[in-house]
Structure formats: C-alpha cells, structure tokens
Amino acid sequence: MTVPSARVTVQVAVQSSRRLLRDTLSACLAVRPDITVVGKVAEPDAIFELCELRHPDVVILDAGPRLREIADRVAVLTRRFPDLNVIVTYRDASEQDLAAACRAGVSSLVPESKGLSAVLALLRRSRGRHAKDSPGGLTDRELELVVLTGSGHSVAEIAALLGISPLTVENLKRRVYAKLDVSSSVHAVAKAASLGMLEPQPQAETAKRPPPARRRPPAEGEGVVLAVVTGQYCSALDQVVSALVSSPLPFVLLRKPGPVSDTHWARWHRGPIVAVLVDPVPEDWDMVAELGVPAILVHSKPLDPPELAEALACGASSLVPADRIEDHFLSVLRMVGQGYLVVDSMPMRPLIGAVRARWDERAPGRLELPELTARESDILRSLSRGHSIRQTARVLGIAPKTVENVQTRLFRKLGVRNRSGALAVADAFGLLPGATPPARAPKGYPSLPGGDWRP
C-alpha cells in the first residue's frame, strides 16, 4: 500500500505591534491551503520564543518607520535560526537603513505601499516543508492540548475529544509546561495567547493524513468561528456554501427563517458565531437580533447609501459583494469572528455618521463588547501572569474572597466558566492587558538593545 506524502506548506510567523494589521495579515494568510500561520506576536522580541516553539519557515516583521532599529533583532534571529527567511515590511527608509537591514540577514524588504500581494508573491517563492513536528518545539498534539484548555475543557473532556487516556493528557501537560516555562494551565494559555498560538491550525492537523473524501467537522469546543448561513437561494449562496465546504470551518445552513436559540449549535458551540445573510429578506435579520451575533451581508446587487446604513443598523459587521466572495469571504469571516467591523472604505465614507450613531445608541438587549471595571482588569492582568487567587490577593492588597467574587463577575461578563477560558476570550476580543516586558532575555538569547519597541 502506498502512503501519500504529507502536504508541503510554508510555516509563517507574523509580528506587528499594530493589532489590526497583525490580525488582518494572519487571517488573509490562514485561508490559503499552502500556508500555515503558526503564531502572531505584537512585540519584535517575542518572535524569538515563537520561533523556538514553532520553528516557522518564514517570519514577517512589521518595521513601520523604524527599519534601522529592527535590524539588530533580525541579526540575532538569523544567527539563531540560519534557515529562516525574514520578510520585513517598512514605511519609510533611507538607503543606509536598507543597507543595514540587508547586512542583518533580511531575506526580502517590502514597502507597505506594495500591499498584501507583494508579501504573498514572496511567500509563494519560499520553500515549504512536509508537515511534521519540529525538535524542541511544541508538537501539533501539544498545541491541540493548549487550544482545548483555553476553550475551558477539563482533563477528562480533552481525553475524550482527542481519543487518548487522561494519564496521557497529564503527561502532555507536563511537557507543555516545560517547553513554555510555566507551572499551570492558566499560565500556559496566557503564554500561548501572547504568542498568537491559540487559533486552530487545521493545516497542521490534516497534513498528517490523506485528505478525507468529505470535510471533517472540527471537534466541538475547538474555539473556531461557526458560520450560520441563511438567505435567498441564488448563485451567491452556492458560492458561500462552496467556500465553507472547502474550508475547515464549521457552518450551519438554514433553509427557512425561524427561532434558533434552542438549537443544539446555538446552545453548545463555545466559539464565536457569525450570521451570514445572502440577499436576505427582513425575516432573516431576526436571527441576528435573537442571538445577538454579528452578521455578514452578502449582496448580489449594489447597495445604495440608505440600504448600507440600514444593514449596519440591523447588526451587519461586514458587507461582501457576490463577485468578491472567492477572494474575501473567508478572511472577512475570520475577522468578524474576532469582533472587527470589516467594510469597504469607499461606500463607508458618507455613512460614518450613521455608524457612529449606532455605536453611541447602546440599545438595551444588544450584545456589547464587555466593559471591565478597573478591578476586573487587574484580576485579568493577574490571570495572564499565571497568578493564583492567593498570589493575586497579595499583589492587589485585597482578600482572597474578594478576588473570587470579582473573578466570578469577570467570568459572567466574558461568558466563560474558568480562568483558561477567560484568557482565551479576552485575547480574541483584544481585552487582554498588554504583557509587561520580561525581566530577562529568553533562554539562549543575548540581551537585545532598545528595550520595548513600539512604532
């Protein structure tokens, strides 16, 4: 019997201190079958630990206007990982800056004006590798364990989902703690969140085995976005369904409008839910109001400004023309699932006032981004550092019982049931407080000049 070879993909790590750019670039790359995004980080110094754990083929660094300052980090990075390709995007640079970056080992320099197409062209020329676990880094199974822990699963639930014994799960957890240099599940999730590794990596999972004849639905609770598709039957609906079938994302296709809050997927799906409305009738919008979820409006005909304003007021977080489904729909779905408003800038310009009015309205019953009190933010910051309840109480100078009470309110606001789930949800919606810079350089690396670097 012939064993098919593993899929060759390009493993990519992304760094940008601009969250919108970081998330957008990662989402656009992740939907391509020949590219695997292994992680994303905000600070340039964090890319060292991400490379140590996930061993990417390519690192994309966002230098912005400070190309000269990032050259020192690139020099250390290429000495540590000689086979690594480093792509640097920059805004403004002098001839001396470009020369310094090339001497530091930058493989490719891309001005921001060239956009995503230039980065993709360079990635397509990069040499990929057969999907396999890298020595010394996190294996795909260990990464699955961290993702499921961040989704709030217990050891017994993780064992059932992965088809292994609880003892094996405990052994995997010990190996993960050693590799991440942490001492608890909460701290492990916090470290993975800071390195952008909590998002599922379906390419790594499917690369180990021959592609199945039908799409394998992800296990319940993996934290991926669930698309709920409804609307009028047309070619645009067929395109949306085809895009979802070819992707690893789960979806539900509703044949007719009606109550959905008691359906099994609405009650038990633990990740974000996004409504996808294709040329909808007024009844289709009832689902958006009933579930309190963001919506993507896919339209076959151009919309005039009043129709755009009405769609935004009804809960649409993105509008996708039918002729752009193939290129943009999956990327837009991932961004909306993370809480972003994704719309074309040109038709939005005359509607800025309408959008601002919708945001300021604060209608009762609407699903709002949780607003945390100062004390709840303190508790969340302590969780991200891996502190226990008693440690948190000592640091904040309050009683452990007070920490428990505030923590309970925090869990209720985030819609989770434990500390790991709170960190995963807070990271997905940008509520996780910025991590303080480490007191010492990572193991095996020299101290880097410049300290914190922000554009």
Written description of the protein model:
With 455 residues, this protein is of the alpha/beta class. It has 4 domains: 8-130, 3-Layer(aba) Sandwich (Rossmann fold), CATH 3.40.50.2300; 140-206, Arc Repressor Mutant, subunit A, CATH 1.10.10.10; 226-359, Rossmann fold, CATH 3.40.50.2300; 374-428, Orthogonal Bundle (Arc Repressor Mutant, subunit A). It has 21 helices and 11 strands. It has helices spanning 19-30, 46-54, 67-80, 95-104, 115-125, 140-150, 155-162, 166-180, 185-194, 202-206, 235-245, 264-268, 286-291, 305-313, 325-337, 345-348, 352-361, 374-384, 389-396, 400-414, 419-428; strands at residues 8-15, 35-41, 58-64, 85-90, 108-111, 129-130, 226-231, 251-253, 273-278, 295-299, 316-321. The strands form 2 sheets. Strands 1, 2, 3, 4, 5 and 6 form a 6-stranded mixed β-sheet that branches. A 5-stranded parallel β-sheet has the order 8-7-9-10-11, sandwiched between helices. Strand 10, helix 14 (305-313) and strand 11 (316-321) form a beta-alpha-beta unit. The termini are far apart. Residues 1-6, 200-222, 353-367 and 435-455 have low confidence and may be disordered.
